UniProtKB/TrEMBL annotation:
Domain N-acetyltransferase span(s) in chain numbering: 5-147
Keyword Mitochondrion: no
Pfam families cross-referenced by the UniProt entry: Acetyltransf_1
Keywords, sorted A to Z: Acyltransferase, Ribonucleoprotein, Ribosomal protein, Transferase
GO cellular component: ribosome
One Gene Ontology molecular-function label: acyltransferase activity, transferring groups other than amino-acyl groups
Entry annotated with the keyword DNA damage: no
Protein name: Ribosomal protein S18 acetylase RimI
Organism, scientific name: Microbacterium azadirachtae
Origin organism lineage: Bacteria, Bacillati, Actinomycetota, Actinomycetes, Micrococcales
Domain of life: Bacteria
Length: 147
C-alpha cells in the first residue's frame, strides 16, 4: 500500500462514498439499509469502523472499508470492501490487518466473519490471510426491519 493509501476511522462525511463502495462491491442487500447500518455502527465501537483512502494528489477518495466489532467473546468483521479498480493492491489486506490489531488491543482472542455461499474468490482471499473455514450453519432473526 506504500504511502498512497491511508487507513483511518470512518467519519460521517464518508457516508455516501462508503455506501457507493459497498454497492459497487455487491455488499448491499434490499433488506438492509446501509445508512442505517452505518448509524448503528457509529453508536457502538465507532473506532472499529475503518476506511482506506487514496492520498494521491488530486485523487483523494475512499477506496476501502471494514466494520469490526468485539462482544467480549470474539471479534467479527463486516463490510470489507475495496474499490474495484484497485483490487489486488493490498487495501483489503491492510484493512483486515488494522482491524485485527485493534481487536487484539482490546483483548479479543479470535475473529470471525461470514461469507455468502458460493463466493469462492472472497473465501480464497481470507484463506491467504490465515482464516480457516468452518462447516457451520448460521441462523438469524431480524429485530428491526429497515425496509
Amino acid at each position: 500500500m506504500a504511502d498512497r493509501f491511508g487507513i483511518r476511522a470512518f467519519e460521517r462525511r464518508d457516508t455516501e462514498a462508503v455506501v457507493a463502495l459497498w454497492e459497487d462491491a455487491g455488499l448491499t442487500r434490499p433488506w438492509n439499509d446501509p445508512r442505517a447500518d452505518i448509524e448503528r455502527k457509529l453508536a457502538v465501537q465507532p473506532e472499529l469502523f475503518l476506511v482506506a483512502e487514496d492520498l494521491s494528489p488530486g485523487a483523494e477518495r475512499i477506496v476501502g472499508s471494514v466494520m469490526a466489532g468485539y462482544d467480549g467473546h470474539r471479534g467479527w468483521l463486516y463490510y470489507l470492501a475495496s474499490a474495484s479498480d484497485l483490487r489486488g493492491t493490498g487495501i483489503g489486506r491492510a484493512l483486515v490487518t488494522e482491524a485485527e490489531r485493534l481487536l487484539l488491543a482490546m483483548g479479543c482472542p479470535k475473529v470471525q466473519l461470514m461469507v455468502r455461499a458460493g463466493n469462492e474468490q472472497v473465501l480464497g482471499f481470507y484463506d491467504t490471510l490465515g482464516y480457516e473455514r468452518f462447516e457451520v450453519g448460521n441462523t438469524g432473526k431480524r429485530l428491526i426491519h429497515d425496509v
